[in-house]
Design brief:
With 127 residues, the protein is an all-beta fold. The chain contains no helices and eleven strands. Strands 2, 4, 5, 6, 9, 10 and 11 form a seven-stranded mixed beta sheet that branches. The protein has a four-stranded antiparallel beta sheet with strand order 1-3-8-7, with no helix packed on it. The chain starts with a strand and ends with a strand.
Length: 127
Amino acid sequence: QVQLVESGGGLVQAGDSLRLSCAASGRTVSTIVVGWFRQAPGKEREFVAAISRSGGITLYADSVKGRFAISKDDTRNTVYLQMNGLKPDDTGVYYCAASLGGTLSARYRFPQTYDYWGQGTQVTVSS
């Protein structure tokens, strides 16, 4: 079992930055692939970013590439999502998810690849 707890969401203005945290327990982040997804009202959950078990490989959605950065701290067993240059379109509930095995690849863009999910944290970007 893996438990994931997100934090760091909030209400910000366009152009601001936020850093989301995903604290894991039950497994160390060096043994799992972790992804971030978001879901806006009335829309499907969409992929944002993912990081490999080693942290050496990252994957981003085109919509956030160059603005968001995923990273992890093995000593804190936490994965982060640094979000810069936020836009109103970035508004939604942000979820982190964990997959127990495999090498990070394009299939980790899909929610069904993941085994465990956090409860989500709300990010609202006003214009």
